[in-house]
Amino acid sequence: MTEARLDTSAHGSVTRNFEHPARLSLPQLMEHSALGPHNRLPARYRGPRQVTGDGWVGFATRLERGEEIALIRSLTAGNRRVLDVGGGSGEMARAVAGQIGRCTAVEPHAQLVKSIRDEATTGAVDVFAGTAEELPFPDASFDAVYCAWVLPYVSDIEHAVTEMIRVCDPSDPESKIVLIAGGSGNELLTLLNEVCVPVAEEPYDHHGYLLSTAAQVLAEHGFADFSLHRTEASIRFGDVGMAERVATGAGVLTEFWYGPHPKAEKIRRALEPALARHFARRPHGIGDQAAVLVARPGS
C-alpha cells in the first residue's frame, strides 16, 4: 500500500512534502494507520459531543497549534476564496487571511463569532453565524474549504461533508477540502477514551471513523484524490507544582468535554490520577496529534 509521506520522529513531530504529497486512493486511505485503531472502528456514529463556548475558550487558550496552522497556510497559499468551517477562536482564519488577504469563517457559538470579529486585525476575516450542516453560502462559493476539529460536534457527518462539497468549486484548479481530526496515538483522545468515556457510559470516541466516513462521502461526490498528513499540537499547562497542574488539567478537560454532563464531577476526579501519571512522563503538555485529510477533485 502506498503511504503518505510521513517521517515521524521519536517525539511525534512530522515532516511532510507539501508540494508533492503521496496520493492515496479511497481503499488505501481507509486502511491507513493514521485513522486507527482499526480494531475499534464503530459500526455507526456515536453522535455529537456537546461543547459550550466557555469550555472551548478554556481549552483553546492553552492550545499550541502552530504546526496545524502552518500546514493550513501551506495548503491554501494558492487559493483566493477560503472557508473555515467552525472558526473557533479564529486563530486559523486570521493566519489564512494574513497570507492571502481574506478568509471567511462560520461559527455556531455567538461569543466566538464576536471574538473572531473583534480580533481580526491582519487581513479580512468575514464571520457568519452558522453550522457545518447548514452553510449560509451559494453553491461553489469557495475554492478551498477546511474544517478543523469540527466533525466530532456535528449531528450528521454525511450531511455536513456534503455541505462542504456543495460550497466548494470543483472547477477551480486549486480546489480542495481539508478535514482535521484526531489521529491514532492522540494523547488527549486516549485520556478521553480510557478515563472519561467509561465513567460517562458513552461509546468509544473514534476520530478515524469520522474521517473514513467523510472520505466516502467526498469520493461519492468526485473529491477522491486524497492525501494525508499528520500534525502535532498540544495543550499546555505551565503551573510549577504537579498538584496544581493536575487539578487545572482535570478542570479544563472536564469543562471542555463534559461541562453540562451530570457526571462531570466524577469524571474530573477520575482524570486526576490519570493526569498525574501523564505529567510524570510529559510534565507540561498533553499531545493533540491530528490526521489531516486533503481531498481534491479527481479519482
- Which shape, going by the Cα principal axes? globular
Unreliable spans: 1-20
Main sheet properties: 7 strands, mixed
Task: Work out the strand percent.
Answer: 15-25%
In angstroms, what separates the terminal alpha carbons? 17 Å
**Average of pLDDT:** 89
| Cross-sheet strand order for the largest sheet | 6-5-4-7-8-12-9
Question: Based on helices, strands and strand pairing, what is the structural class?
Answer: alpha/beta
User: Helices and strands, in N-to-C order?
Assistant: EEHHEHEHEHEEHEHHEEHHEE
Please state the oligomeric state of the protein chains shown: single chain
Give the total of beta strands. Answer: 12
Helical stretch count?
Answer: 10
Question: Considering DSSP H and I runs of 4 or more, what fraction of the residues is helical?
Answer: 25-40%
Rg, alpha carbons: 18 Å
Helix/strand layout:
Elements: E1 7-8, E2 14-15, H1 26-31, H2 53-60, E3 63-64, H3 66-75, E4 82-85, H4 91-100, E5 102-107, H5 110-119, E6 124-129, E7 144-148, H6 157-167, E8 176-182, H7 187-200, H8 207-220, E9 225-231, E10 234-236, H9 242-258, H10 264-281, E11 285-287, E12 290-296
Parallel strand pairs: 4-5, 4-7, 5-6, 7-8
Antiparallel strand pairs: 1-2, 3-10, 8-12, 9-12, 10-11
Helix pairs in contact: 2-9, 6-8, 7-10, 9-10
